[in-house]
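Exam revision sheet. Question 4 asks you to relate a sequence to its structure. Input first:
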Amino acid sequence: MLAVTLTLSTVISIMFLLVGGVIGYLLKEYVIERNSTFIPTHPEMFDENGQITPDEILAVRFENNFDTFEDDE
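Answer key, structure tokens:
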């Protein structure tokens, strides 16, 4: 009877630990998402003093070059 009690208490303790860890992780992510004032910026947006540049920044996206010319011989 003692072995059954120890086994069940161990299994229940591990289950409570896992459920508490999952709930804690989800709650932490929720709080960080709700209270976050961090604006992601890139290093090229700053000047020498660490201030954001007032100029407009141009974004360029290069597509894959599908115009490969191959000789079909």
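Marking note for examiners. The two ends are 84 Å apart (CA to CA).
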